Amino acid sequence: MSRDIPRAAVVQAVADLFRRANQELGADMVAALEAARGEEASPTGRRVLEQILENARLARTEGLPMCQDTGFPVVFAFLGEDAHVDDLAGAVDEGIRRGTAAGYLRASVVRHPLDRVNTGDNTPALLHLTLVAGDRLRLAVTPKGAGSENMSRLAMLRPADGEEGIVDFVVETVRAAGPNPCPPLVVGVGIGSNFEGVALLAKRALLRPVGDPSPDPRLAALERRIAARVRDLGIGPAGFGGTVTALAVHAEAGPTHIASLPVAVNISCHATRHAEAVL
Ligand code: SF4
User: Fold this and answer.
1) Is the dihedral of CA 186, 190, 195, 200 positive or negative?
2) What is the pTM of this model?
């Protein structure tokens, strides 16, 4: 027998998560930024980190968005096979609409990439649905700013390019992005799958608490290797130069074709937002 999750509960949860994600920087991000402030060698970089932390504090206490770009609404729904929701996609959009109004969030979505007409309420959300065991619904709302999304890249490498090729591509992507994606960054890396799947792996890598290493020791070693090379780029907080360019590198991998080595780099900014609930 399936468990019914009321549509209204989904609407309310998504509304709260979208507003909260934009106003309350996660404890993991705050901790990573505080650690970065202690590590950063450049005095200018340390001042930038101080301002980012103060901005996050003000957003939380005053109930204001932490950035003018309140992000493209990406929603991950992990739906138990023994749960049922009427009109999940409609409920998610209604939640985004209400969260946008409640949080006074900027409307940042256009209905078509060529006519550029703003939908006015941040809908439709981009909904990624995954079926999982159980009778619960886990929702992760991750508004994503365009400044960092626009600096993201994907490459179909050859298997012979190996780990060296992956590291070079990720580091070159961060180098080319420079100050544009508002560093310090969280760098999501997808490896494997196929053309569309690897981009989703990179995005899902950003869901992990910031700084938690991959549970796969080989991927964790690769994350450390990329992080060391990114550190040497010297881009620093806000791009003013310094030692902290990225707060973390997160990699996720998936099965792929014998002739493929897809790699995607989803760059995220110092306002990496993520709020979750389980219904
Ligand atoms: S990249 Fe991030 S911090 Fe920079 S403007 Fe966009 S949302 Fe804001």
Assistant:
1) negative
2) 0.96
